[in-house]
Design a protein that fits this description.
Helix content: 25-40%
Distance between the termini: 27 Å
Strand content: 15-25%
Number of strands: 3
Length: 88
């Protein structure tokens, strides 16, 4: 829902949108929606008022979390250690 709101905000501003792939899960791609702060930021990123897509050289795989207990455990770990990539 947040990504959709950010995407629509980017359309309204008409400065461009950058979709940056963060990771891949089976059947979907998880992306960050970047909206430029101002016209010079959009120019530096060569957005030109359009949609730009970027992929990382490193392909990160993601797995869906379907257990509430596991999700709470992950949130607790992040609070204690800060953000880090957990190896499976």
């Amino acid at each position: 829902m947040d990504a959709q709101v950010r995407y629509e905000l980017g359309l309204d501003r008409k400065m461009g949108i950058l979709l940056y792939q963060i990771c891949q899960a089976p059947g979907l791609s998880c992306c960050h929606v970047y909206i430029p702060k101002n016209a010079s930021d959009a120019e530096q990123r060569a957005l030109g008022g359009g949609l730009k897509m970027a992929l990382s050289d490193e392909r990160r795989r993601a797995n869906a979390v379907t257990s509430r207990l596991y999700w709470r455990w992950l949130k607790m770990i992040v609070r204690q250690d800060g953000f880090r990539v957990l190896a499976s």
